[in-house]
Each structure stands twice: as structure tokens, then as C-alpha cells.
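Quick question, first post here. What does this chain look like in 3D?
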Amino acid sequence: MRHVNRMLLALGLLALPAAVSAQRPGGPGGRGMMMMRGDPVAMILEHKADLGLTDEQVTKLQDVQKRLEEQNKPLREQMQKEMNGASFRDLTDEQREKLRPVFEGLRENSRKAMDEAREILTPEQRDKMRDLMPMRRGPRGGFGARQEHQR
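> Answer (accepted):
Ran it through. C-alpha cells below.
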């Protein structure tokens, strides 16, 4: 149960853009906001010069990003409705459990978007992106998760 709560907390933190953007200097949509929204493709696009992305790659990645936003919009709306302005850590275990399918949907959508993004990048760009990611996760996730399989 403790593992589930930690996972839900982490996902909740990724999925609460309104609270974070309201307190950021410069308002909503500031740098880093896309990662807080669970949009890993935005991070790639933020580093397009560092990665040497072509115009074609940028266009493809923007399409992936747009699809991710469209897929996540109803999930975010459902989450915000269920949470009714409460902080994630103030939710009961029962409320968190009720939101589990929403968080799992957000996570799965992000995973699929990252899989698509990996296919767009060259192996060299994937290596470089892995080095640029601020929070590399272990073998279960993060940008370098499936690197070995795609070389």
C-alpha cells in the first residue's frame, strides 16, 4: 500500500499544472511547465537546438505533443473535478484509489508519447537527450529506458 501511495503521489505531482503555474513567476506555461503537466515531449522540443533536430523532426514531435495534450485533457479535467481544489497529499486513500485509473491513463499516454518520440530521434539524439534529462529514472522509465533495444 505504501508503494501505491508513493506512486500515486508522484503521478499526482506530475499532473497538477494549475497549482504550480499559479505560483510560478510569469504565470502559467512557464519554462518547465510542460514537464509538470506530464509532457515529456515538450522537454525534447525545449532542447531542439542542443539535439540538432531537423525541421521535419520538430514537426513530428509537435504532432506527438499535440496528441498527448488531447489525450490527457479529459483525464486532467476529471482529476481536477474529483480533487475539487484539494492538494493531492490531503486526499484520503479512498480518494487516491478512485483517481488511480486517471493517473494510470496519464502515465500510459506519456509512455506512448515517449515511445513515439524515441522513434523520431536518431540514436545519437537519444543518447544526448538522456544526458539532458534533469531527472533520469532507472530501468523502469525515463528517456533512456529502452535505449538498448533501439540502437
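The chain is about 70% helix and 0% strand.
The first helix runs from residue 2 to 14.
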